[in-house]
Amino acid sequence: MFKSYLKIIGLLYIQKHSNFLITPKIIEKVIKETHIFNDIVLASKPYIIKASPKSDMAIIWVDIWNLQNDTKTELIIN
Question: Model pTM?
Answer without folding.
Answer: 0.76
